[in-house]
Design brief:
Number of domains: 1
CATH topology: Thrombin, subunit H
Order of helices and strands: EEEEEE
Strand content: over 45%
Number of helices: 0
Mean pLDDT: 88
Distance between the termini: 25 Å
CATH architecture: Beta Barrel
CATH class: Mainly Beta
Strand order of the largest sheet: 1-2-3-6-5-4
Structural class: mainly beta
Radius of gyration: 13 Å
Amino acid sequence: MITPINDRRAFRRMAIESPLQISFNGQTRQGVCLDLSATGMSIEVVDAIYQVGDTIEVHLGQGTATAPPLSGKANIIRISAQGDKYVLAVELTELK
């Protein structure tokens, strides 16, 4: 877990660093899910095509017989530049 003691988030975050797909404006791009909570995730991307307020679709994992992949819609609530990459903070709004 990467939740500091003074963190006031309602749900703990789990560091997972797993590849995921992002669907946006009819295109599918790759990203890396850095961490995941019950209500959102942080996603590392190389493209600067996103803006705060955009709605994206995320697809995380391939799924197994006992655990389906995580798939749904998310709203971008913050974007941070990290060198030549960007970290999107997203709020999950709909899971499929």
